[in-house]
Amino acid sequence: MLKAYRRHLKTCPQRAKGRDYKFCDCPVWSDGMLHGKRVNQSLDTRNWDRAWQRLRMLEEPNCATGPGDPPRQTLPSVSLGSAIETYMNDARRRNLRYSTLTNYQRTLTGLQHTFSSSEVRSIDLAMLDRWCQKRAIAPRTMQKEIQHLRNFFRFAMDRGWIESNPACRLRKPRADDVPTLPFTEEEIIRLFDACDRIGTCNLPATPYIRRRARALLYVFLYSGLRISDVTVLRRAALNPAKGYLTVRITKNGVPLKVKLHADAVDALVSLPAQNPEYFFWTGRGNPKTCSKNIWETMHRLGKLAGVAGVRPHRFRDTFAVELLTTGADIRTVQKLLGHESVLTTERHYAHFVEAHQQLLDAATAKLDFSPKPARPLLVHPGEHRRRNAQ
Fold first, then answer.
1. Which domains are seen in the chain, by residue range?
2. Which residues, listed in sequence order, are joined to residue 176 by a DSSP beta bridge?
3. The pTM is what?
């Protein structure tokens, strides 16, 4: 017979109470004789009830978990690293955006670094709670990471590696910060002025650096593209004669175009070509390196212009907010931004839609709780004639 016990960690304050003490959060192990052999192995969980269930499954692999339940098999042994690698390969196969893949990889790499020796079936809610508490990130970033965890464990659950999704019970933190901070008109003017002052140690390359910075500002402001898309922006996507920039191809194969300002078209056309195929990427090395260089250029422009918090995504916010405040429909903005659902656009930008506020004002204007004079009692005409006849 096997027996479950707590294998106390060195840091456990209850370690002196012995292995029979079970009211702590240390890993649960099994010990005893099984089929004539000595067994002393981890049950890959810290939950006592789940440990007893796995202990029973070790003794009788095809046993039922409860009265009337069908027989069940032991979960396969899949390491966390192997599960993450399989998940990321599947994400690449589905042709997800480069930025989406990067965000997934960042979250799951942090998870793997913390639980490197664990199996995916051993990760439970308590472990994820502790992992989230140690993450020194903003609440809004934590919201996104929890969603990434839910997607990953749903993937593992669909493949039979785990019984349930532990990340579904994680509570997302409340984000009180303002999600969207568009640039003001004055800040944009100062940023463009800073393009003529940005420099580099390589003096012969300074004119190109300045023209490149100006072209980047124009593209970010007038296209609403993400930095990952701007990095690999192709010259073939621009139609200089008509001023159209193809920002993406929709699911039905139709190109989605945005009309650029004439100054933006001129800045792109006049930008010297380091690569005949791309505007900003040289075509050599990893595009991620070019994205970091673009991010650094925007940060330097912000310092020169005296504008705080300059980052590429704020230009995307400015693009969306300017459209909405000038009367554009929110579904039009959704298509230009490339959001899969209009709910995403509403969550970030609905408070800038003037039409929404007008509807709210019209609805509340109809409310009137002031005292009103008493109304005369209405008597049915037939009832009035019957009373007169009497």
1. 2-59 (no CATH), 80-169 (1.10.150.130), 185-356 (1.10.443.10)
2. none
3. 0.60
